[in-house]
């Protein structure tokens, strides 16, 4: 063995008695144990490709295979002559170490013919599947509406669950239910079972339904809990004579009422409803009480109980008969909903079959059908496939669902050779339909490995943690011993689950490694008349300051070689439940402290500037009369229209849409943009979305413009990702720009976000979600955002879903149009609350166990000391589950047991020490701090203060000079960031003064309507555009005569490079005259010829703007009509359609000199070759003019 095994690890590696479940706590080396078990089997003589190893991501599978390969290589280096081991090093690449979906895909390609499945199926991704589902559901709804019958189940469904002017709410309900039942091995059977449950045949008491039983059990638990609290209050009262007389009788009445309610909840709904009005008689006078602390605690307990019972009483506003009537009233709508789900599933399946597609749930369900019979027993096929594998090993088993569990069970003959490893305390993917109860059920049913008989399934618990220091582990143990139970958390955190220190760390450490909890008092801060700063900002500033303190003091962490070193930014992680909403606060706060940072998944793909600009261009290509995307495109860095320029365009046509205003403007920049847009729109009808997008990238130079900005590689990557989405859209059989834009809109609306790296690779402090941190470890972990309220949005959906309890609808009173909850909804919401709390508690466990050496918990309390005072009556260790269920945030879960620690005086203030059970193991002392958040309201002065300390003192004269200071680069602010070569026409340096003069109003110009263009022909400007298009696309080799040129123009019209009107407007004789000239013959004879050569270069701004500062640059862009190479160098040719005659020609050519010089400069810089000539060709005169 490469490392020393603990007894429990040895059992996990060597036990062969039957199915084995390994419950591996955080940092216990579970992956290493899995690798050692696999190689131990190989060392015993089994080929490595006789094992099926399942992980839950491709990355995890690749990492696991890499570890196996590395371990085999190490062993082979020790025994180079071992032929069997050498053979395994080859077979390892054949071994099936993969995801569950990869295994199911292989099974279906080999055996799918048994289900009439084409083995050449294609797997569709989530986004493509969503698009197909919406199309299929729309088609089903259309058919349903065509045949709708009043009072039918579907009609009642529409009346009950639709909302607004469309079916979006109903569609979302259907898609949600269909998606969620995919975790059931037989979704159709699940629907049938739920339909029978809603029929409630023979049910006369709400308490006899599964929903009523759950609610009554909850009522009983709450009544028992508050009876215990009232007993505590009564005991306190009886210790003081005056309190006993004043409060005792009232407390006894309340206590009796709570006991009666708990007993009645056992007998049925109406019995419980009759006892729900627990009495709270008026208290007597307590004047002269000798124990004020006891008095306050009694009052607090009584008020909390009264408030809770009042809320509980709302559950019994309706009697059993009324609740059952509500359920029967919604039954037709539920039948209609389930029938709609079935029809939709059939339509979706048919569409997938037509396209030869499967989605991920198809892989699992079809594999389960092949391997498991109707009674759940393995099929003959499962037996034969099971013989391929000596053992099936599944990592992260806590994240399986019922379908996957059925596959594993069938493949291993009921689990006989199934090795499962995981940690249910780290099951945090319920939202992905993971079911931790599967792992829990096995863990509770299996015997310990040293007690199980041969062939019996057994379990091994790995609790020794090799990752973290004692302080971190005992801190986590204290919290979870106090709060995690079967009632709250779905399992008891006993000694078997507790983390045992197993790592070694340098001796004589000087650092303070105690778990630190910082309670931030955010009740103050801000101006008296102004708004209070956001809590997230205050907490972010505190965290940033704490990070700065750790870095400045050189907090010692292990160097990995037995010594210590100062902590670095990359050693620290800030964990948040959901970084997205608070990330900007942390970015700002860390920036204020000069701390580099990076975040994973820091942004929304669709919110990236370059993507918004690309989508705006696509939107106006589809329909240019959309003001918002049109203005977004014009204002972008691609076209660089200034705000003033856009305002002038709008002012000239205030009553029109912006596109019309733009067409009437007549400016050269507007005309150039419209020409380009028209070209895009003309192409959009024939080109694929992918080709069109690449044309936009090419012509508008999006990749060049955004690639030159900060984080240019990331921006280019985003644009390439958009192009990939276009290819995937077309690969799925879809076409059309409108469809692609609708597809992207659906992705946005349905949460299909593609995340972007915000900043990375700089070795800075990391900001990360808890979900992303799973499986990772960090020397220092700062767990922030604990005071943010728990997310209960799932319980506000139009219809709730639970895999066991079914759906929870509302009843709609159609006369009053008022919705109210049904019995099923109340029960499902309550169960979802329990399970949400358990999931969030497991998230807390994952977060706390990421720390190797230092764990810091941050609790930002909006109410300050008042928030703590409210918690004190319920504080204690262990903490009552009912008290935890009433909490609004994870911070309260942490504070309830922490307030009971002996060293928590700074947090408790003057409050009493909460109770702690006998024998409570507090572990090493915590570092508990009360932090006044008032100072965090102001921007830290750290950096500015350091600068001011080094600045010389200044007298009054100097101060006056500072007030008179003028920003020296003010002129540069007004300079454009981009300049096009066409804008340089006629731009002489002695004309620069004219830039400062106000421009006269631009005369309005009206484009000729299309019907007039057909009758009257194109305008001169439109004719010029048409002639340029001909020179861009015509085959120069087929221009030997006027007739040949006319044929080429006809070809371009036929191929839709030109419109018929453009083709008619171009005179073939003018084109032929160019090719018959000396310049044209040079062009035809040139060995190298380029047309429409686009360029972007940075040039000194002072060359074009005399007021520009030294070192300022401007982006110069342009398109060279034609250039060719001769022996002397490059010749630049620019085609002009200006109507000038005689002597005016030379003057006009001189106006174009700056434009040609820009072309020459760009070509020389890009190609590295000299430009020998710059030539203008005037078609109106048939002459070439060199400039």
Index terms:
single chain, 1187 residues, alpha/beta, 7-stranded parallel β-sheet
Describe the structure.
With 1187 residues, the chain is α/β, with parallel strands linked by helices. The chain has 47 helices and 32 strands. It has a seven-stranded parallel beta sheet with strand order 3-2-6-7-1-9-8, sandwiched between helices. Helix 17 (402-411) links the parallel strand 6 and strand 7. It is globular and about 120 Å long. The N and C termini lie far apart (82 Å).
Choose one word for the global shape: globular
Class computed from helices, strands and strand pairing: alpha/beta
Question: Termini, distance in Å?
Answer: 82 Å
Low-confidence stretches: 755-760, 943-948, 987-1008
Give the overall average pLDDT: 87
Indicate the proportion of strand residues.
5-15%
Instruction: Work out the number of β strands.
Output: 32
Radius of gyration: 38 Å
Task: Report the major sheet.
Answer: 7 strands, parallel
> So how many helices?
47
Helix proportion range: 40-55%
Strand order of the largest sheet: 3-2-6-7-1-9-8
Outline of the structure:
The chain has 1187 residues and is α/β, with parallel strands linked by helices. The relative contact order is 0.08.
Write the layout of secondary structure elements.
Blueprint: H1 7-14, E1 20-24, H2 30-43, E2 51-55, H3 58-78, H4 83-91, E3 96-99, H5 100-111, E4 122-123, H6 126-146, H7 153-161, H8 168-180, H9 187-199, H10 210-238, H11 241-264, H12 269-275, H13 292-313, H14 320-355, E5 357-358, H15 360-371, H16 380-386, E6 391-394, H17 402-411, E7 418-422, H18 436-445, E8 447-448, E9 458-462, E10 464-465, H19 470-483, E11 500-501, E12 516-521, H20 535-553, E13 556-558, E14 564-566, E15 572-576, H21 579-592, E16 597-599, E17 603-604, H22 609-622, H23 627-635, H24 643-652, H25 658-665, H26 668-684, H27 689-700, H28 702-707, H29 712-731, H30 737-749, E18 755-756, E19 765-769, H31 770-773, E20 778-783, E21 800-802, E22 806-808, E23 810-813, E24 818-821, H32 823-848, E25 851-861, H33 865-871, H34 881-885, H35 890-898, H36 905-908, E26 927-932, H37 942-950, H38 956-963, H39 970-973, E27 978-980, H40 1010-1016, H41 1020-1033, H42 1042-1054, H43 1060-1065, H44 1068-1076, H45 1078-1085, E28 1089-1100, E29 1113-1125, E30 1130-1136, H46 1144-1151, H47 1153-1167, E31 1171-1178, E32 1183-1186
Parallel strand pairs: 1-7, 1-9, 2-3, 2-6, 4-5, 6-7, 8-9, 10-11, 12-25, 12-26, 15-19, 15-20, 16-19, 20-25, 27-29, 30-31
Antiparallel strand pairs: 13-14, 17-18, 21-22, 23-24, 28-29, 29-30, 31-32
Helix pairs in contact: 1-2, 3-4, 5-15, 6-14, 7-14, 8-14, 9-14, 10-11, 10-13, 10-32, 11-12, 15-17, 19-35, 20-21, 22-23, 26-27, 27-29, 42-44, 44-45
